[in-house]
Design a protein that fits this description.
single chain; alpha+beta; Histone Acetyltransferase, Chain A; 9 helices; about 20% strand; 2 domains
Length: about 300
Amino acid sequence: MLSEHEQGCRYIPQLGDEVVYFKQGHKEFLDSRELNDSDRSRYLPRNLGAVEFCKVEKLNYDTYPGSGESCCKMTLRVLDSSSSHASRKEFQLTLPDLINFPDFIVEKTRYDAAMKTNWEVGDECRVWWRNESSEGGSWWEGRIEASQVKCPNFPDSPWERYKVVYETGDTNLHSPWEFDNPQFPWEISTMDEEPREKLLSLFAGLVKSISKYQDSYGIQKLNEAAQKMDFCNRFPVPLYPELIHQRVENRYYRSMGSFKHDVDAMLSNAESYFGTNAHMRSKIKRLRDKITKTLRKMMI
């Protein structure tokens, strides 16, 4: 699991995100999974336009059916229905880890930055390609060879409208938000510095409690549990205190809501894992109360 944002930044959902959804990309992804017509119809939301501006209203970590892969089950609310083709205000979507497929959900800030540039045929560009191991990657230099709507069924969609020829001679279709854009750089969203510092102070105190108060909040036990196979295999996203602490340090969270969402998921996993251990459940409750009290003070 990531403790910081990667180069190229594929989209990983957080609660409260404002995003742009591309129905064409979603359809192509479902087609690539070789689903039957019934499953494809079930997963592809109806009554939506080619491009929809949305907010992540609900987010649950789960396992993608038939694969065992971790995924996010989201409820997306359409933000501007007056200018949208959508006849519904919200819809559900299951998003797996798109290792070998482009993002069909993009942070709105990234989309806005990308659309400021009028890319033209002949322009040089750089695209981030992940390694086959899915860890790390590199920028590839190329040039835009053609620009056109990919599918007539989605005439208003910028999805993969650019054909790029690389220095190797290989070609590939890309969307504008995949290009490195030095003229209008995308600044990754992150929570404000003041609440971040308060969260770091909270974690500093929790770490001290391991030795000073005999791990009264169960921090060490939770970190140790996350190293065990039965814990990792039991939960789609096996979160633990040290990882969340690292994410705060590395400015991973875009809002307090996304931080709280991960904490709630971590504590829910812990309560399930230590279900019959009354002593540990007492520590988990103490930890929940401590974090809740801290967050409540920060809201005042």
